[in-house]
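Predict structure. Input: AGR3 protein, 165 residues.
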Amino acid sequence: MLHSTLALSLLLIAVTSNLAMAIKKEKRAPQTLSRGWGDEITWVQTYEEGLYQAKKSNKPLMVIHHLEDCQYCQALKKAFAENEEIQEMAQNNFIMLNVMHETTDKNLSPDGQYVPRIMFVDPSLTVRADITGRYSNRLYTYEPQDMMFLIENMKKALRLIQTEL
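Output follows.
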């Protein structure tokens, strides 16, 4: 009798813990196109859609390459999402895309396929290889402390449209 009660108790504990884990998984926030980079920003779904919208609206496309399980991407995402100036410019002046896979355009990985990586494409569909971050070994990466540098590069992308196109 004692063995039966013990076995039944262990079975009940196992079932309850599995049920609790299943409930916890179900309560995850729904995944949106922002993926945490800014819920107020309008995001495009694909690179091709981003190119089309950039050309149509005469706004630059900002492409953020990242991975969900990358600690550097997560830190950058947090800084990006918390910066009001970046959020405002991204919402009003850019076509925005964040991707967790490589695009077919190899111009978006001129120095490798590392993450995080942020690149700009102007409305003439030219990848702006001249708008780089501050690191010589990863030209298009930004770190959380680089948000002012990213803001300056966003402004540069906007200025280039007015002077070059």
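Residues 2-26 form the longest helix (25 residues).
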